[in-house]
């Protein structure tokens, strides 16, 4: 009788531990862009990084960031070498190549900037019709309207490795415009001490930015669904807005 009571006590104790102890957290690796301040930075920090950590944390998934250039990150998810990467804009190309899911990371406003040394008469993106040379970053997305301008031959792409390169080329008069996101422009123009040279021209568009998941990775769809669930949770509990307000 004593033996049975002891066995029952042990069984109840194990059940109690299973109830009290938290579930073991999964850990996944995500490709993190290395050069888009303040959204994502070379040290693995940034607005997007914080949102992604919080969203996955809410569904008990831990994240390891593998920091790399944006173009390489896209290549990795396209070929299934890694589950996901960011910051991917919503456009026809990215929607076809990757799983973007239901929940965006945020909206980012991009605009055309020009050099104050040049006389610019163009007032909006619809007037870009005369083969203007526009500096862009290799692998970056700038929305469907931009893609149509390139496809129809209205503008000429000048591809650089970074937004810093484009801003310097713009200040030197080597290109007519560069497209850059507003939060990024505010930081980089000041860091490069180009306040007297670089001017806001006109808006390109407001673009939804995503954590993109691989269509070829066997767990791409599953973790896309987990991320959507986590984003919904942090939007409801206020964590998402707190992160946004901090930038």
Radius of gyration: 23 Å
Major pleated sheet: 9 strands, mixed
Low-confidence spans: 1-24
Structural class: alpha/beta
Commentary on this structure:
This protein has 247 residues and is an alpha/beta fold. The protein has 9 helices and 9 strands. It has helices at 2-20, 47-57, 70-78, 92-97, 144-151, 163-171, 182-191, 220-236, 239-245; strands at residues 26-33, 61-68, 84-89, 98-99, 106-115, 132-137, 155-160, 177-181, 198-214. Strands 1, 2, 3, 4, 5, 6, 7, 8 and 9 form a 9-stranded mixed beta sheet that branches. Helix 2 (47-57) crosses helix 8. The termini are far apart. Residues 1-24 have low confidence and may be disordered.
Task: Report a brief summary of the structure.
The protein is an alpha/beta fold and 247 residues long. 39% of the residues lie in helices and 28% in strands.
